[in-house]
From TrEMBL:
Protein name: Glutamine--fructose-6-phosphate aminotransferase [isomerizing]
Oligomer and partners: Homodimer.
Residues forming the catalytic site: 354 (for fru-6p isomerization activity)
GO cellular component terms, semicolon-separated: cytosol
Shown stretch of the complete protein: 242 to 600 of 600
Amino acid sequence: QKDGFRFFMEKEIYEQSNVVSDCMLGRLQDEEILFEELDSSILNGIKEINICACGTSYHAGLTASYLFERHSKIRCNVVIASEFRYKEPLLNKNSLFIVISQSGETADTLEALKMAKNAGLKTLVICNVDNSSMTRLADNTILTRAGIEKGVASTKAFSTQTVVLWMLSLYFAKQNDKISQEVLQKELHALREVPKSLIVSDKMHEKTRRLSKRYLHGHGFFFIGRDVFFPLALEGALKLKEISYLHAEGYPAGEMKHGPIALADPELFTIALMPENLLYDKIKSNVEELSARDSTICTISPLEFELSDDFIKTQEASHYMLEFFEMLVVLQLLSMEISIRLGNDVDMPRNLAKSVTVE
Ligand code: M6R
């Protein structure tokens, strides 16, 4: 069943390129995005979007908040479902309530969805499991078509969620007449390239395997990025924590000097996400500051950077989201290889369950 892979997580990392193609099938058209499953009046009267989710699905939601505001020009708030439930949230009827869940069964996310429904909001679930509690409850469902995900550490669920949300931001942008045909075509072109950017090359896998030898000795890890690469940094840190049991934190790179940089020393490993196509100079100066304080720096980027102690080279790409997906694969492989070297059970990490159906 593992098809020759050592763990389900490894198999699922390698599957991403194909499942993302399935996920885009029929939705990514020549000149537009189509979601036939959505109620055509879904945006009528909608002034803002609220997203609720947990864990990795929350990171997909955070990524989406950048894309919804950038493309659809709709204000977007993202809240962790367990926080949302008890904060006495103000729910406006003019907001679209989106929940994101691989399983469709996560207790906190399900409760948040119920609250939104009871308050009369329009609801949408982005989910991998048809006929789950959330798909049965929500007004609208978009299935991510990732196939069964067995590894507790979510991989292909995240890549498909992110692709769906990116497509949705463009679909909404078009519906609201907020995107030019020229920009839309560029985005569609980039979307077509996503499966390629998710292909695992032998070289990339080997590089993460080699680095894992030293990185398992890290006392702590900072994953840093800006814009959508900030949620990606959170996701990289979560993957490492879950399966390697090493302490890792994801941070917006510009936030380091507001406190966390005090921790910097050679035993602290910084994994810096440095895309060529988005805020490169800004993150570069954040990494320079960390390097000046002797943090060990690993940069993931298409561009070599003289201050890196280690460098994982990604492909040059025409769009930052393509860099995002390739870096995602690197982060997944790195955490998996570290976990394997530590002798951990990659697919069933301690203290965790695949689906969290209790509060
Ligand atoms: O099934 P869901 O997407 O609702 O699950 C949410 C989280 O429990 C899940 O993403 C968790 O964080 C994963 N183990 C992360 O790899």
